[in-house]
Amino acid sequence: MANSQNISTLLHTDCCGCRACGDACPVSCISFKEDNEGFIYPIVDEASCIQCGKCVKICPEFNPSFNKVAEEVTAAYAVAEADRQAGSSGGIFGLVARHIINNGGKVWGAAFDSNLQLKHVCATTVAELKPLMRSKYLQSDTSGCFRQIAGDLKAGILTLFCGTPCQCNALRNYTGNCDNLFLIDLICHGVPSQDLFDKSIKWLEEREHCHVTKFAFRSKYKGALHPQAFSYECTKNGRTETVNGLHYQFPFYFGFQKYITLRPSCYTCKWASSERCGDITLGDFWGIERIDPTLDPKAGVSEILANTDKGRNLLNAITESGVAWTQRFQYRQLVGNNGCLQEPTKLKPERVELFEDLRTKSFDEVVRSHLVSKRRWIFDMYYAMPGVLRKMIRKVMDKRMKYE
Ligand SMILES: Cc1cc2nc3c(=O)[nH]c(=O)nc-3n(C[C@H](O)[C@H](O)[C@H](O)COP(=O)(O)OP(=O)(O)OC[C@H]3O[C@@H](n4cnc5c(N)ncnc54)[C@H](O)[C@@H]3O)c2cc1C
């Protein structure tokens, strides 16, 4: 732990933007401000700071903590088609969340508000869970959550929190280990900013002469085999329509898939490792069809690590009631199948160029230089092909990359 008395000593490149320090400060001297890349950072009003050190104590970057490496990896998906459709991969988050709510608990997750601002919110009924489902590929605003959750835990309320590993670690530092708190950390390769998402939505609205009211990443209109699919709802000429697309047709999603728009700390993430901080870890089980050819990968399959006894018991509660199909593997059999369990995303030189251009050029120019494909026709052709052909091409490309 650092000797520092407040969070201002945390390096800009290390701050993960969890905002727990703001909730922890007893004199409210920490506010948050966007930097010139559009990411949010804490600012300490040194004149009001009482040097209590609470912000440093709960900061996950100063105080990361990890569980023992899980021995087993489970592949699973919700048996009910609607449950599977509701999630990004196998819909496991939804099943666990429903179990908590049915047992009188509260569930926290990321949801868009009516202005498409991503915030961590609380669901207390099954109906309220819907906006929390599915991955949203930008940083969510967690301010206020930590304080509220700590109060609920003290009152004995069963609580489930699902978020990025840094957010989960921040919450555990804030509340300490509590029997009634369950943490689900996501396998995460990083988060872009709300600011870049806002700019991309505005760009889309201007181009399509519409007003976007809803946006969904990982839309399953093409099946889970197309993890880069998205859908949005918009009003145009007084009518509401739904538009579907693939990542290369929306600048924000294209940049996310190129890994050039992430928060600086994501490129040195401490939690991109097999040691996790959540009771359960959830991710996508890429390549499951190679391990079990009988499985229909179109369903979307979740990769699950039970990192603590508490997490294992919670998973047993949902699997024993017959809601999830499961298959178990030894963790070491699967090492390497999911890169984000091994190491952080690599920083590419293009990230530096992109953010430099964002400062000096119009958004339209930035999109043309970095956030659309120069050879869009290749993507158009590729995605128009039948799935079997795409699979064959992917295999050849994989082999070539291995030998290059
Ligand atoms: C930014 C991000 C990057 C990811 N990167 C990878 C990856 O590289 N490899 C991989 O295997 N899996 C990754 N995932 C996880 C994956 O996309 C699925 O979320 C996970 O498999 C759970 O799917 P599900 O069907 O069980 O539940 P879902 O219904 O998809 O549940 C998703 C849960 O995540 C929460 N959530 C959604 N967006 C955010 C957000 N921005 N911040 C915090 N919490 C959020 C929701 O509230 C919900 O609780 C990532 C997720 C996110 C949010």
Q: What can you tell me about this protein's structure?
A:
With 404 residues, the protein is α+β, with helices and mostly antiparallel strands. Among the domains are: 52 residues, Alpha-Beta Plaits (2-Layer Sandwich); 199 residues, no CATH class. The protein contains 15 helices and 13 strands. The protein has an eight-stranded mixed sheet, with helices on both faces. It has a three-stranded antiparallel sheet with strand order 8-9-10, covered by helices on one side. Strand 4 and strand 5 form a beta hairpin. Flavin-adenine dinucleotide binds next to helix 4, strand 4, strand 6, strand 11 and strand 12.
Model regions low in confidence, pLDDT < 50 over at least 5 residues: none
Task: Give the helix proportion (percent range).
Answer: 25-40%
Number of strands: 13
Query: Span between N and C termini?
Result: 43 Å
Task: Report on the biggest sheet.
Answer: 8 strands, mixed
Strand content: 15-25%
> Biggest sheet, strands in spatial order?
5-4-6-7-11-12-3-13
What shape does the CA trace take? globular
Mean pLDDT: 90
**What is the count of DSSP helices, taking H or I runs of 4+ residues?**
15
User: Structural class given helices, strands, pairing?
Assistant: alpha+beta
Molecules bound to protein: flavin-adenine dinucleotide
Radius of gyration equals 21 Å
Encode the helix/strand succession as letters: HEEHEHHEEHHEHEHEEEHEHEHEHHHH
